[in-house]
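Project standup — Tuesday

K.O.: blocked on the structure for the chain from last sprint. Re-posting the sequence here as requested.
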Amino acid sequence: MVRALTAYRERIRAEFETAFAEDHTPHEVGASFGLGVFLTTLPTFGLGLLVFVALVAVFDRISKVAIFASVVVLNPLVKPLVYVGSYRIGSQVLGAEPAGSLDGTLGVATDATLRLLVGNVLLAAVLAAVGYVVVRRLTVTYRRRDLDVVERLVDS
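H.V.: unblocked you, prediction finished:
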């Protein structure tokens, strides 16, 4: 278990370092990751990856590495937590669940789906914003650190 977590952490780190070193601005790297997090958080049932490919093909300002790194962060092991959190957020926003007023199974399923989707969109927006800020800042810090290393080598 520890070995698997260490390998996972190293994979995430390698993905981010590659994104940080790209020829994209820190804003573009952060925005690409944030967009990826938003789309990955949504229940797209795998279609999000096709959207990623289309976006990367159309917009050259999107960092391929950063947008696909979001998939590594929000992997299938994390997604159940996202859905539980989404349902809870949706329930908070929509209020108490109706007691017995729904028309059978279809009514219950519709209510549950609505709660999940409302919460999911809100959670996706928050995670995307946080992801943008964090990855943009990490990109700036990473590049500044590399610049400091280069300057020290030149000065010596």
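K.O.: great, moving the ticket to review. The mean pLDDT is 84. Residues 104-155 form the longest helix (52 residues).
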